[in-house]
Amino acid sequence: MSMNNQGRPTTPHAASASETAGTFTGNRALMQEEALIFELDNPGVVGVDLPEPATTKTKLGGVKARGRIGLPDLAEPQVVRHFTRLSQKNFGIDSTMYPLGSCTMKHNPRLNEKMARLPGFSDIHPLQPESTVQGALELIDQLAHWLKTLTGMPAVAMSPGAGAHGELCGLMAIHAALEARGEGHRKRVLVPESAHGTNPATAAFCGFSVDTIPAEDNGRVSVEAVKAKLGPDVACIMLTNPNTCGLFEPQIKEIADAVHEAGGYFYCDGANYNAIVGRVRPADLGVDAMHINLHKTFSTPHGGGGPGSGPVVLSAALAPFAPLPYVVHGEDGFRLVEHAADAEGKPFGRLKTFHGQMGMFVRALSYILSHGADGLRQVATDAVLNANYVLASLQDVMSAPFGGPCMHEALFDDGFLKGTGVTPLDFAKAMIDEGFHPMTMYFPLVVHGALLVEPTETESKSTLDQFIATLRHLAEKAKAGDAAFFQAAPRLTPRRRLDETAAARKPILRWTPPAQPVQAQAAE
Known about the structure:
Blueprint: H1 76-87, H2 110-116, H3 134-151, E1 155-157, H4 163-180, E2 188-192, H5 198-205, E3 209-213, H6 223-229, E4 234-240, H7 252-261, E5 265-269, E6 289-291, H8 294-297, E7 312-314, E8 326-330, E9 333-337, H9 358-394, E10 410-412, H10 424-433, E11 440-441, E12 451-453, H11 461-479, H12 483-487, H13 500-505
C-alpha cells in the first residue's frame, strides 16, 4: 500500500477495509475522502487560459528554471471540490457547541460581518489623509468611549492586536510609570500559579522576574498570600478575575489595596471579562490596567492566530504613559496623535505600525450597540447561568475540584475516571465521535486532569441538555469498565487517533512526492 510521509494511504482504494470504514473509495457516504492537493497534481491542467507572455529579457542573470517549482496543476472543478471537501471536515461554531474553556467561543452575529464589509470601513487604508477617514476615527473614538464607560477607566489604548499584546502594553505602561517615579528597581511581578501562560511570559519579556503565588484549596488567591510576597521590589501583580478555574476572586479589592500600599500596580488579565461585563466595573476593584479581548467579550471571531484585538484600559496613574497613536476630537474633527511631542502625557512609544484592528473595532461596536448597556449585562448573566447549569447537571457523575457555584466556565477534574483505565484524553476523543469538540483539557495546571467547559451565553438550553446528556453517557460508560471503547476513539473521524506528541515535536511541514522505484536494466 502506498503511504505518504504523514502515514496516510495516498490512494484510498489501496487501503484496508478497517482504514476506510469498509468502502472501496474511502468515502463515508457524504463525507468524502480527500487527498492532499499536491497528490491531485495533473501536470499541464489549468483552470484558466492566459495569453502567452511576450518574450522579455531575463533579469536573473541568465539563470534558468531547471524544472517545475512544485505547485500542483489542477482544473477549476478539482480546486473547488478539494476545498469544499476540506471545509466539510472543519468544526466550527456554526456547526454546534464549542465548549473550550478560557476561550469564549461564542456565536458571531452576522450583522457584525455585514457592518465590517461596508465601504468606508473595509476598503480604507491606514495611510489615507485623516480628512478622508473621519468616520473610521469616530468609530474608534466611540468604541473607546464604550470600553472606558463599561470598565470605569479614564483611558484606553486601542492599538494592541491581541490579548497577549495587550498584556505587553499594560506592563510597558507600568514599566514607564515606575521609571518616571524613579523606581526602576522594581522588577518583581507577582503571578498566581493558575494564570494564563502569557502572563509570566509577558512579564519575562519585559525584563521582570516572575514570583508565583500559590492558590488556596478553594482555587482562589488569598490576600494573605499576596501580602507575604510584597516588598519594595514588586512592580505589579497580574491577576485574572474571574480566574482560570472559573471562579471569582472575592478578595480582589483587598489584594489591589495591599499592592497599591506597597507601591505596586494591579494588572488584571481581562480574558474572562465576558463573565462580568456590564455587572462589575474593574476600576471599582482597584485595577490599574486590563486588556479586553474584543474577540472574546464582544464576539469578533478569532482562532488560527487571528484576527484578534486587545485594547487596554488604564487608570489615571497609568493613562499618561499610554502608547501612540490615539484618537482625539478637536474643532476640526477627529485626528490621530502619532508623535510623542504632540501628546499630553509621556507615551512609552508605539506598539505596532498603524492604529489597531479596524475590522475588529467595527464588529465589536456593532455588537455593543446591538445589545446596549442592559443587553451586555444580560450577556454576563446568561454566560454564568449556562456554566452553572452544566456544573450542577454533571457534578453527580463527574468530579468538580471546587465546591459551590462557578462563574462563566465549569471546571471538572479526572477524579471520576480514577480506576477506570480511561484518561481525560480518551474521554475527549470519545466526545469527538459524539459530534462535540472536546473542552479545554489539562488546564489550568493547578487541577489534575482538568476538563474546563465554557458554554458561553449564546448556547440554547436544548443544546446544553444534549451536551450534558452526552457527557453523562460517556462518564457512566467509563465507570462501567469499557476502557477499550475509549482507547479506540475516535472511530468516526476522517482520521483516527494521532500521535499528537510526536506531531508537535517532529512536525512534517513539507510534502514530498513518494520516491519512484528505479527500473533495473538488462546488461548489453
